[in-house]
Amino acid sequence: MESNETEVAVSSLNDTDLSPQAGDALLVVDVQNDFLPGGSLAVRHGDDVIAPLNGYGEIFHRRGLPIFASRDWHPANHISFTAQGGPWPPHCVAHTHGAEFPADLCLPPATEIISKATRIDRDAYSAFQETRLVEALHEREIVRLFIGGLATDYCIRATVEDALGNGFGVVLLGDAVRGVNLHPGDGEKALRAMEEEGAVVVGHGVAS
After folding, report:
1. pLDDT tens for residues 37-65?
2. Model pTM?
3. Residues assigned a catalytic role
């Protein structure tokens, strides 16, 4: 961890109400090789989220707060793939390099991994969909999530909406997300929508 990465993360959370504390957890969403430059479903500049997430992760780890990381963990013939009539090229197939977290993403050993979209016939953008994330958060007495990762306009938005719908507070790490932007401006629209739905966005406008 470079010290300046931690300093950047701290500067984004300098308000007392936003300082991570008991009852908070960090949720890193789908930062996987296939979503990074060179991957089969790359998000433009997706690797830019890694440094700020490492900074936030250092804060949470140092304070003894839980860290969760979600991942797509697809069967080889998943319904979302174009060969099965879905909208996306094959990506994040379980046990392949594309599904792995990048080597430079610093996840502490105690990070709890949440695998999603593991069934052939069901897709899942949200880290909450058909996973044990809600139960795991309740077990740890978590009431607020700090969320960053990929991609703003798909899995981040779905995860934030489900977090809010399940009664969790949400701090969206705007400097640690990037959008697919299939249509220009989709990422920024998603950020505004999540704010309107109740998420607190820090670093809003830094990256969408």
Report:
1. 999 999 999 999 999 999 999 999 999 99
2. 0.91
3. 30, 116, 155
